[in-house]
Amino acid sequence: MDSIRFAHLSDTHVKIDHLETNLDYVFKEVKDPNANLKELLDKIKQMNLDFVIISGDLVHEGDTKDYECLKKILTESGISIPIFLALGNHDRKDKFNKVFLNEDSLERYYYSQKVKGLKVIVLDSAEAGHGRGVIDERQLDWLLRSLSEPCEKGNIIVSHHPLFWDNPLLAIENSDRLLRSIRESNNRGVFCGHTHKGSSFICEGIFQSVAESSAFGFDYDDQSAFVSDRCGFGLCTVGDREIFVCHEMVQAKSKMAAKIPINTLKTILK
């Protein structure tokens, strides 16, 4: 089959004023995330791609004006291919739904769409008021129905929180039923974010790719999360029997912006 190519962005953290935030000490030390996103979209526009995914934490603190800013950035990018958006723990469903869907709703935002015979399934793993990932039963039922429908080139799944991570604090909590559903379908890969650290690997027979944040990077040890000015995205190709992901750097790590104790991170994600 003809290969399908797409860009995978995540954790864009758009905000009108990043210095009016709970992470102002980080944003003082890194390049403006809004400028990073504009630069990245301009680069993507020059590529021969089929679609773009942005896997959550679209804005930093979920204000209406910040979603309006994001919408303006996406519109003014001039990108004509589909852009699939997922929601993360920094997003607010009511504000997103109002700006992007013109709906007064607190409903989770999940959906699917076919592109050149590949089904793109976007999940909403963000629980209101809760930093860790959860896929609710209603959404799981919908996913089972969606996965059971045959699709010529299979499916990919987009979620903010990863299915797997070496620290379970950062992964989807109730992943067992989700994993069974994915394994039984013609799944080509799962694409997620949240960790601000790019990686691609196979676990329990499922290919997972986590994108770098386009805003700032994280590295981890047992005691702390280290924030840096690293940012990037994934350039992905789905072929007949293979899948390739190149983790592209927009900004290589040049300095550490902050150090966050793991216990503080756990409090943030509760």
- State the CATH superfamily name: Metallo-dependent phosphatases
C-alpha geometry: globular
Number of domains: 1
Percent strand equals 25-35%
Strand order of the largest sheet: 4-5-8-9-11-10
Mean pLDDT: 92
> What profile does the largest beta sheet have?
6 strands, mixed
Q: Over all CA atoms, what is the radius of gyration?
A: 17 Å
Q: Order of helices and strands, N to C?
A: EHHEHEHEEEEHEHEEEEEEEEH
Give the low-confidence spans: none
Oligomeric composition of the shown chains:
single chain
Number of strands: 16
The CATH topology is Purple Acid Phosphatase, chain A, domain 2
CATH architecture: 4-Layer Sandwich
- Termini gap: 44 Å
Q: How much helicity do the residues have?
A: 10-25%
Per DSSP, the total helix count is 7
By secondary-structure content and strand pairing, the structural class works out as alpha/beta
CATH class assignment: Alpha Beta
Structure description:
41% of the residues are buried. The strands form four sheets. A six-stranded mixed beta sheet has the order 4-5-8-9-11-10. It has a five-stranded mixed beta sheet with strand order 3-2-1-14-15. The mean pLDDT is 92. Helix content is 25%, strand content 31%. It contains seven helices and 16 strands. It has a single domain (4-269), classed as Metallo-dependent phosphatases (Purple Acid Phosphatase, chain A, domain 2), CATH 3.60.21. The longest helix has 13 residues, at 33-45. The chain has helices at 24-27, 33-45, 64-76, 93-101, 137-148, 176-183, 262-269; strands spanning 4-9, 51-55, 83-86, 111-115, 118-122, 126-127, 130-133, 155-158, 187-192, 199-203, 206-210, 217-220, 224-228, 231-238, 243-251, 256-261. The chain has 270 residues and is of the alpha/beta class.
